[in-house]
TrEMBL record:
<feature type="signal peptide">
    <location>
        <begin position="1"/>
        <end position="22"/>
    </location>
</feature>
<keyword id="KW-0813">Transport</keyword>
<dbReference type="InterPro" id="IPR050492">
    <property type="entry name" value="Bact_metal-bind_prot9"/>
</dbReference>
<keyword id="KW-0479">Metal-binding</keyword>
<dbReference type="InterPro" id="IPR006127">
    <property type="entry name" value="ZnuA-like"/>
</dbReference>
<dbReference type="Pfam" id="PF01297">
    <property type="entry name" value="ZnuA"/>
</dbReference>
<keyword id="KW-0574">Periplasm</keyword>
<dbReference type="InterPro" id="IPR035520">
    <property type="entry name" value="ZnuA"/>
</dbReference>
<dbReference type="GO" id="GO:0006829">
    <property type="term" value="P:zinc ion transport"/>
</dbReference>
<keyword id="KW-0862">Zinc</keyword>
<comment type="function">
    <text>Part of the ATP-binding cassette (ABC) transport system ZnuABC involved in zinc import. Binds zinc with high affinity and specificity and delivers it to the membrane permease for translocation into the cytoplasm.</text>
</comment>
<dbReference type="GO" id="GO:0042597">
    <property type="term" value="C:periplasmic space"/>
</dbReference>
<protein>
    <recommendedName>
        <fullName>High-affinity zinc uptake system protein ZnuA</fullName>
    </recommendedName>
</protein>
<comment type="similarity">
    <text>Belongs to the bacterial solute-binding protein 9 family.</text>
</comment>
<keyword id="KW-0406">Ion transport</keyword>
<keyword id="KW-0732">Signal</keyword>
<dbReference type="GO" id="GO:0007155">
    <property type="term" value="P:cell adhesion"/>
</dbReference>
């Protein structure tokens, strides 16, 4: 009898000590994961499908990826324009938030002729919204609404997290604006056209990119044009990206006075933890200032 009572007490204690429902949120790419981490603080931690050093432009799903998709309670992705490999699998999932289809978010739309001879995969909407603090604010608000619907037990906590996140966004926005105020006029090239949200918000002087679609090598005409500018204007900064080999940039800049920097739009080396999104956007800022100030 004493043994039976002990088992009952142990079972009851274990049941009461179990945490409440922890929603399994799967994000497609790391920048979206970083945003969701802030919104889910104190409740659960979002997972991510693609490794940090993996480009979504040419990814192919593995069987283990398909299993993770099936097990997720909520999947948050940008949309077919960024992650076309997910389109078929997510069409059968019951709970998906497609960021590119949010009606109340003012995304940047590419200009006509942007599609790089028909090879560009982004569609008409620029998917790199996470580099624009004003757009991130709107997207975070919509993500919070969906989290609260899927997990109403924690609705108040999600809303509180959103309020904290927006306050930090506003503070960070002011800091970045001040840090970049001295480099507005400095010209530079980027590897691919991924930074317009950031550039337009802080009035930076991007004079071109090597490629629209990082899956495709830059055309000969583009490289000749860039090299001509570099030979005529010393000290222009050229930004590479860690996901792609810098050989083409090294070739174009060889023998010139061009400066070289690195921009990482996928937050490869940013730890997924509290404040991760802000470390990411501040790191982008520092990458700009380090090259443009020298």
């Amino acid at each position: 009898m004493k043994y039976f009572r002990f088992i009952l007490l142990f079972t009851a204690s274990a049941l009461f000590s179990l945490p409440s429902f922890a929603m399994n949120v799967l994000t497609s790419v790391k920048p979206i994961q970083l945003i969701c981490y802030e919104l889910m603080a104190g409740i659960s931690k979002p997972d991510v499908l693609l490794a940090a050093n993996t480009s979504p432009h040419d990814y192919a799903l593995r069987p283990s990826d398909v299993k993770r998709i099936r097990q997720a309670d909520l999947i948050i992705w940008f949309g077919e324009g960024l992650e076309p490999f997910l389109t078929k699998s997510l069409s059968r999932h019951p709970n998906v938030l497609t960021i590119s289809q949010l009606p109340d978010v003012h995304f940047r739309h590419f200009e006509p002729g942007h599609h790089d001879d028909g090879h560009h995969h982004h569609g008409n909407i620029d998917p790199h919204f996470w580099l624009g603090i004003d757009v991130v604010r709107d997207v975070a608000t919509e993500i919070t609404k969906r989290l609260a619907v899927a997990d109403p037990e924690h609705a108040e906590q999600y809303q509180s997290n959103l309020s904290d996140f927006i306050r930090k966004l506003d503070k960070t926005d002011t800091q970045i604006r001040n840090e970049l105020s001295s480099v507005h006029a400095q010209p530079y090239y980027v590897f691919h056209d991924a930074y317009a949200y950031f550039e337009k918000r802080y009035h930076l002087n991007n004079i071109g990119h090597f490629t629209v679609n990082p899956d495709r090598k830059p055309g000969a005409k583009t490289l000749i044009k860039i090299r001509k500018v570099l030979s005529q204007q010393p000290g222009i900064c050229i930004f590479a990206e860690p996901q792609f080999l810098p050989a083409v940039i090294n070739s174009v800049t060889r023998g010139t006075d061009a400066k070289k920097g690195t921009l990482d739009p996928l937050a490869t080396d940013i730890e997924v933890s509290a404040g991760g999104y802000f470390r990411f956007i501040n790191h982008i800022t520092k990458q700009f200032t380090n090259c443009l100030n020298n």
